[in-house]
Amino acid sequence: xxxxxxxxxxxxxxTVAKEVEAVNGDIxxxxxxxxxxxxxxxxxxxxxxxxxxxxxxxxxxxxxxCDQPLCLINPEIIxxxxxxxxxxxxxxxxxxxxxxxxxxxxxxxALNEKGVSFEIEANxxxxxxxxxxxxxxxxxxxxxxxxxxxxxxxxxxxxxQSQKL
Length: 165
Ligand code: GNR
Ligand code: NI
What we know:
The chain is an alpha+beta fold. It has one domain (about 10-165): Peptide Deformylase. It has 3 helices and 7 strands; from the N terminus they run H-E-E-E-E-E-E-E-H-H. The longest helix is centred in the last third of the chain and has 17 residues, at about 150-165. Bound molecules: ligand GNR and nickel (II) ion. Ligand GNR binds near residues 44, 47 and 92.
């Protein structure tokens, strides 16, 4: 089932997600729905926060052929280094793209969709995407990393847009 994606400046995007206690049937169904929603959008990642489920779940696929699904439950960054500036966008902030600086290499520990713990090392686009999604789980959007002036302009534009809908 394709889920609705919350759009900025919806305050629900500011919710801090809770740890998943057990990867049960409900969580597995949510992961499936999140993949379906991400591929349909289309996007390279989706955090549960964006579909109004406030648990620490991320799905990602940065491959060209959309055949490398990656699910991270209760993700933790255990190492990070370097810096990368990358032009980011967000399904919750449509039609808006800006450069953001993040760590270029990260090591992450998480549970997969079966509840099994694993570690992954990522760099470049995958590292950017994981950090972008982990921000969502903390109620943080990529636009929060921009200058106050850019944030003010975007907020005005988005508030006008949401009144039209
Ligand atoms: O689809 C997405 N593309 C993207 C591009 C650059 C940096 C981050 C991303 S994630 C985004 C999907 C999304 O909003 N995930 O939360
Ligand atoms: Ni996003």
